[in-house]
Specification:
Keywords: Cell membrane, Membrane, Transmembrane, Transmembrane helix. It is a multi-pass membrane protein. The protein has 206 residues and is mainly α. It has one domain. 82% of the residues lie in helices and 0% in strands. The chain is globular.
Amino acid sequence: MTEILLELLDKGGYLGIFLLMAAENIFPPIPSEVIMGAAGVLVARGQMTFMTLWIVATAGTVAGNLFWFWLGVRWSEETLKKVIDRWGRWLTFEWDEFLKARDIFRKYGDWIVFLLRFSPILRTIVSLPAGLARMKLWRFVLFTALGSAIWNGILIFGGKAISGLIDRYETLAGYGIVAFVLIGVAIYIYRVMTWEPVAAFENKDD
């Protein structure tokens, strides 16, 4: 399993990494930790260079977040609520999570875009209130890129550091990757099945 994943990433090359990292910030079940960790192993093997991988992965992350930022710029909060009520189930995106990100953004300002890159849930959602607030594009790109660069760098170095262990315990590592992915999928399915629109919560309170 480990070698299959590494071979797929190697064949996809840097373009594949860019697209995967962009998609990871739009569609929840794609785990950046697995992508970057495996890519770090390829760096250790000399099949990719750290600097190119780091830049491409960070660019992909920024591109994915620009999608949400653009929606925030284009749509009103009322429109966003309607969209989240209709499609939030499949994105495992709840309205109260948006409100939390919005309130944090309003309280702390632009810098929170950088800090929330290290939050597993809010790091993408904060792009919406940033767009709604008409945050300057260059500042959004800068803070997103800085936070993403640090996080991606940590993941790449982590994959590179354990590459020897992966080569030595390939079967065990493969089971670990499968388990990690299955846990992520299970969490996604659980959130899809238990997701309720805001109206449902409001009715429960009545």
